[in-house]
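Please predict the structure of the following assembly.
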Amino acid sequence: MSSPTTPLPSAVRTPARAAGGDQHATRGPEPELITGAEAVVRTLELLGVTDVFGLPGGAILPVYDPLLEAKTLRHILVRHEQGAGHAAEGYAAASGRVGVAIATSGPGATNLVTAIADAYMDSVPLLAITGQVFSTLMGTDAFQEADIVGITMPITKHSFLVKQAADIPLAIASAFHIASTGRPGPVLVDITKDAQQETAPFVWPVKLDLPGYRPIAKVHGKQVQAAAQLLASGKRPVLYVGGGVVRARADDELLALADLTGAPVVTTLMARGAFPDSHPSNLGMPGMHGTVPAVLALQESDLLVAVGARFDDRVTGKASLFAPDAKVVHIDIDPAEIGKIRTAEVPIVGDAKEVLGDLASAFRDLGAQPAQPYAAWWERIRSLQHQYPLGYTPTSDGLLSPQHVITRIGEISGPEAVYASGVGQHQMWAAQFIRYERPGAWLNSGGAGTMGYAVPAAMGAKVSQPDRVVWAIDGDGCFQMTNQELATCVINDIPIKVAVINNSSLGMVRQWQTLFYDGRYSNTHLNTGHGSVRVPDFVKLAEAYGALGIRVEKEEDVDAAIRLALETNDRPVVIDFVVSADAMVWPMVPQGVSNSGVQYARDHAPSWDDEAPGSGVDPDFVMPAPEGGVEPVSEADAIAGAEER
Amino acid sequence: MSRHVLSLLVEDKPGLLTRVAGLFARRGFNIESLAVGSSEVQGLSRITVVVDVEELPLEQVTKQLNKLINVIKIVELEPEQSVLHEHVLVKVKVDTATRPQVLEIVELFRAQVVDVTPEALVIELVAGSQRTAGLLKMLEQYGIRELAQSGLLAMGRGPKSITERIPRS
């Protein structure tokens, strides 16, 4: 760093809401004396924050008073602080802006912990502001005291403890900057009650002083050249795309590179939507429940170009056996991700948007390319796609197929909608069977696997994207963890749609019990679905909250219910889709084995030498998306981009 | 396992030590020694950490440490090109018979006696780990009553400084 201080981000200098900014801007020699609480609100407004999610309590009470007068800042009162945290996450993930959550000290703050951990794992820009007991009482086990800075240290990108009013603007501006730049993440600002109550001159703009924070590395041109060379000489490359491409909104650059090179693309759970599912080069999701073509393409590849991906164990399977013949180009904004799991032959530290653009240029500059790039490779992949299309076996108990329900939600609502999911089987099906065409359309808890993410995240997404249809695709287990936010949605006119994929059980755990514990179903039955006592009855629950509740038990009613939900925008909608508990997520790579052992369906592993098309498909097998990837798309189409050069 | 000496230049902020120590703990690395004190730049502290890890995890820890907002710079110091010293205070039981022997050892190790009573001596030594270990070994036979050791302090040899190209306020 050449200058003693980090320059202010543009957001700090010129707030998005210029009107709000101007009226607060300090002019002349005498800065206005205001309370720390007022400084919190004013700083947020000056940073361009327009929405915050929170719940008051003793130690944050001072901040809630000036919130009443806030002109450009809307506070949405949640029913549980975890809801505020996930709402802020959903808000951020859908829009790319920083999500803000406010809570009081002690239990208020600890209720935020799950959401903070979630944001840390999935690199979500989250600003958490918590009240702290009086600085004079800190460390005395005071009422509602918790060392939240200490508690969240391993799960935040950074944190600030503020004990003086004068320090508030700088702390919040710094936190905002850190949360939103480089690899995004959660930042906590813990403010003592006395700091909120005392007055201090409000000075703005603030000068950030973060000499140890260098979020943006200069992209190494030679490494980019080397990566382009590898792409040009590779026979079986795969672009292994992770959530970093979504966070960097580098989808245009990725599309350009994919078209230019003709290399196949796999999009991880966090990257669904980073690359259009309608694109013939998209092989779908890799990993434990990835498509067979995506899993095996990685496995058989001779060159992985990993972009904003971190070789998560759910993607690699047994890491030492992952993509054994592949050289690795690893592009990430976080140097600590490179080489963490897999050694990279070509490490490139930088923002995905910039690096992908540079890489495309470098590749173009190389000129000489084979006329049919990767022809044999595509032949192999197309054969896998013919043989192992994504699909499912219909249920045999007469109950709804969850995959069918989710497919129809995606088809009827379309790619402009936002889909937030909980964690478990419904999450995997939503990742598999909804076709995503744009970043920010798919929100889920990938790294942390937080059940209960869907409803509050959908709520936050709807606040940031009020004109979009926002679905929470939830499970009956997940829904019961955070459905109290339906109250927030009803009261604040946030009309989300909730699809409860109700199999009356903790479905993914049940699936593992079926497969690995001899069908001994220990504590996975939830009694919410077919043939059970229905506690709770989700339709009644929805109605109790003032939402529209619909129950769907027959396949012929699925579409009508979805359409009714889409037409209903004066209140949230909850559809209780009563589905079969026996449906399982396939394909699947059992934990701890090589991805080469991917099973297409139960006891059905793709054979390495048997390439006869259709031989792997059950006659009843349902392939819900015939227009994409399954029925391809000639070789010529697939490499059209490459030929256009 | 191999021993590595890391020198960290950090902002002098509350909680910094917890952040650094926590990072090691989370990854399951044992900190062999730790020394913290101010640097020549106001507001910046210097931490010397000695860890016992293989190269690869060390690189990962270094990268993770670098990500800490308050960490400004990390340098691994090569033992051959560095001065590595620790500070030892040791209290040894003596009587009229053993005192001359202990004093002879003190002399041999170029240590100092900093406190004398009829029953005990407090000996001070600032030296590399080998010499301090040698002194302690020799003193063991007389009965070590109390021992306090600083973490290893380290500095690269030659004119260069770790704070070069570091912003000074």
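The first strand of chain B starts at residue 2 and ends at 11. The domain at 83-153 of chain B is CATH 3.30.70.1150 (Alpha-Beta Plaits).
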